[in-house]
Inverse folding.
């Protein structure tokens, strides 16, 4: 059934028709100012989006689409605390968590800033005390290892940030992350640790998530068996909106750090969920991370759409998804420390916009969120870039690169930069038949061999990419980058008319896993299940012995 959104998206097809008749190579040749026209800055973050299948008319149509879809109005409504998460009847106010202005931020008639700042102050006090050793374990030893137990938003954000900010961490205070219910995960993390010097942080917005509760129980038993039951409170802290359940687990009240239902799990790294980051890199660096996000929020809230980085990236994603039908989007940081960035963005983007029902509850008849994936360069180059260059799918790419490395190890960084620039250039230019033939002739190959090899060595080119360039991967810059992608997801969700802030799609699997547990434990028969599930349960029970 047609929805009004489709009529918004349809005008893009005119631009697509025009651009399908040309190539980026031609567009660059025709316009020496293309980089200038199609690049924009937010603070020190430069976005080059000139290597896209766009012209000024197409961009104008895309900004018009964003306006017609109400991106500005909905952005302002979000910031005003309106319940834009309609299915859970909640505000979406993660921007308050990093707000550094002096105005009130109101949610449900109340200024939330005093509570936000109160929790941040408690996080500062606690992280400082763990770092300087004044908070000790039950045996009087200071902590050397902090293990965060959480999953999804209670894991991916802090784990990604801790890794990204490795230059700001201390060798004598390590942060570990346990998420999977697979016992191998916690086993392998605990194997090298000393219970006397290990603190656990149980991170769960709901404090009911099965994986997290199972891992927390295992960690609790590990401490109790090594140090005695009485040691448990000294070795645990909790981050949650469910303060009662934290207390029920036996966590001391001054070690429970709260947040609020208007913070979505995948938008929670700025809240108490960031505590392991504050411990690992120090509170000042955590605050700088918040500051970078605040700067991006101000850019998003105040900059006109045509110069607004999250809007530009958002509409380009819509362009490729809806006008060109590309189904995946790769995020390829040329930064080893951003090796969990794509995994983090998978939740942020795919849990947000992986929806096929519009806000009004009607099925959409256009594509919504793409598959997000990626690995750091240059590793990806030797793995999956073959398909990006010569495969049958076109995959729009975001490249990320810092101008300055943290290490002074020439020539590593220059090589890294040369590689990222080479990739976007190669994707855009491709290699024509004439170029291949000239190259093979110069190598002295005979005509027959040239004919045989040419189709294999041609690159179609015209493959789109954005490049984000920033001075250095500091806490501040990382905060800006993460907030940039958050707002990009918002822009796209608004254009697609979906609720980016619920995640009902994860519920069915949870329900069925609960129902299947007694069957795989052998205490109930699997008779009510389909023949595949029944067959697998029976085979499993035989195999496990
Ligand atoms: O995957 C579903 C989800 O609800 C995520 O949105 C959330 O980040 C994750 O589970 C963990 O939830 P919690 O923090 O409540 O344990």
């Amino acid at each position: 059934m047609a929805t009004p959104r489709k009529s918004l998206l349809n005008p893009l097809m005119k631009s697509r028709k025009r651009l399908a008749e040309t190539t980026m190579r031609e567009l660059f040749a025709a316009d020496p100012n293309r980089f200038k026209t199609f690049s924009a800055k937010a603070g020190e973050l430069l976005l080059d989006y000139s290597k896209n299948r766009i012209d000024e008319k197409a961009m104008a149509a895309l900004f018009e689409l964003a306006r017609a879809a109400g991106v500005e109005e909905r952005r302002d409504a979000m910031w005003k605390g309106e319940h834009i998460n309609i299915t859970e009847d909640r505000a979406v106010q993660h921007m308050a968590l990093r707000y550094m202005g002096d105005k009130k931020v109101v949610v449900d008639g109340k200024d939330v800033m005093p509570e936000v700042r109160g929790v941040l102050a408690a996080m500062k006090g606690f992280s400082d005390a763990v770092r300087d050793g004044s908070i000790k374990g039950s045996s009087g030893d200071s902590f050397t290892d902090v293990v965060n137990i959480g999953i999804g938003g209670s894991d991916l954000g802090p784990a990604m940030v801790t890794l990204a900010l490795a230059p700001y961490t201390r060798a004598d205070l390590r942060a570990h992350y346990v998420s999977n219910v697979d016992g191998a995960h916690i086993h392998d993390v605990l194997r090298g640790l000393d219970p006397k010097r290990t603190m656990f942080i149980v991170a769960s917005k709901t404090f009911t998530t099965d994986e997290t509760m199972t891992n927390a129980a295992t960690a609790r038993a590990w401490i109790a068996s090594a140090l005695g039951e009485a040691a448990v409170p000294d070795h645990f802290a909790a981050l949650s909106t469910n303060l009662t359940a934290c207390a029920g687990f036996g966590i001391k009240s001054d070690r429970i750090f709260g947040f609020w239902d208007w913070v979505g799990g995948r938008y929670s790294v700025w809240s108490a969920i960031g505590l392991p980051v504050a411990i690992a890199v120090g509170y000042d660096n955590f605050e700088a991370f918040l500051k970078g996000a605040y700067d991006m929020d101000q850019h998003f809230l105040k900059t006109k759409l045509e110069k607004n980085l999250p809007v530009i990236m958002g509409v380009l994603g819509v362009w490729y998804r809806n006008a060109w039908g590309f189904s995946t989007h790769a995020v390829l940081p040329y930064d080893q420390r951003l090796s969990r960035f794509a995994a983090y963005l998978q939740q942020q983007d795919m849990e947000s916009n992986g929806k096929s029902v519009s806000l009004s509850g009607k099925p959409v008849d256009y594509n919504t969120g793409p598959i997000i994936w990626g690995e750091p360069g240059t590793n990806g180059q030797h793995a999956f870039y073959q398909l990006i260059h010569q495969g049958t799918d076109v995959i729009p790419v975001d490249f990320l690169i810092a101008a300055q490395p943290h290490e002074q190890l020439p020539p590593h960084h220059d090589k890294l930069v040369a590689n990222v620039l080479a990739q976007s250039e190669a994707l855009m230019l491709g290699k024509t038949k004439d170029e291949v033939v000239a190259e093979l002739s110069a190598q002295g190959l005979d005509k027959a061999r040239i004919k045989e090899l040419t189709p294999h060595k041609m690159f179609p080119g015209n493959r789109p990419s954005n490049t984000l360039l920033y001075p250095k991967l500091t806490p501040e810059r990382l905060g800006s980058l993460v907030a940039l992608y958050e707002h990009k997801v918002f822009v796209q969700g608004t254009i697609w008319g979906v609720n980016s802030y619920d995640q009902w799609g994860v519920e069915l699997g949870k329900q069925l896993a609960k129902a299947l547990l007694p069957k795989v434990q052998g205490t109930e028969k699997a008779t009510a299940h389909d023949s595949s599930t029944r067959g697998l349960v029976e085979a499993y029970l035989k195999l496990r012995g």
